[in-house]
Design a protein that fits this description.
By secondary structure, the chain is mostly helical. 69% of the residues lie in helices and 0% in strands.
Amino acid sequence: MSGQLVVAQDLPWPPSVGDFYPPNVAGPWVTKFGIMVWIAVAVLIIFFMLAYRKPKLVPGRAQWAAEEVYGLIRNGVAKDQMGAAGIKFAPYLTVLFSFIVLTNLFSIIPGFQISPNSHIAFPIVLTAVSYAMYNYIGVRKHGFFKYVKMSLILPNVPWPMHFLLVPIEFLQNFIIRPVTLALRLFANMFAGHLLLLVFTIGGFVMLASDSLFIQATSVFSFLMAILMAFFELLVAVLQAYVFVVLSANYISTSMADAH
């Protein structure tokens, strides 16, 4: 599943975390993950450029699809989380959603068979962008010291309680938020790929068995692999939506006038 289908009897060991690191294409700087990311960027640029090249009152299929994606994020995420002020963030959130969905779907596309987001580095980069954005917006609106104060100090709380609450608020707002945002996306795509890997290679292993009964049960392993592929499709879209909703929520809290 890491991009190279291997015959079961040639496997000296069962699948492992090492299968998440496909061979480099041309040295350490040109990897399969990197190529997939650039392909995703190119596909999205070409798609949206073609969709809006000649916009029509009655949209064609490409324009309709682009408008539906933008409308979903604009109305269902940006406006819901931030109100009218969220409209200006809709383009960023739409691009973020589209990019995560496409890179997640690579996990079930033959030839790719793995998502870059199953490698922790890519969710960290996506999280860093959202993390920098919502902190920058908060500082720009409130000023650095007021923003930090609003993030750490709860109003109407007896002052001795701040010795306990300030460290908790610091961890929650500046450490836990970005860590969980990245880990949620990574863990779901990692687990999904691992399940696909286990059922697919497990099917080949059972098929190569000397027992006719075990060979027959390999059919169930392949059926589970197909079922998990459809489940992975649902997870790919859902995790992209969750990532964008949380990013919008964090931006909203940084713009709020009170804690």
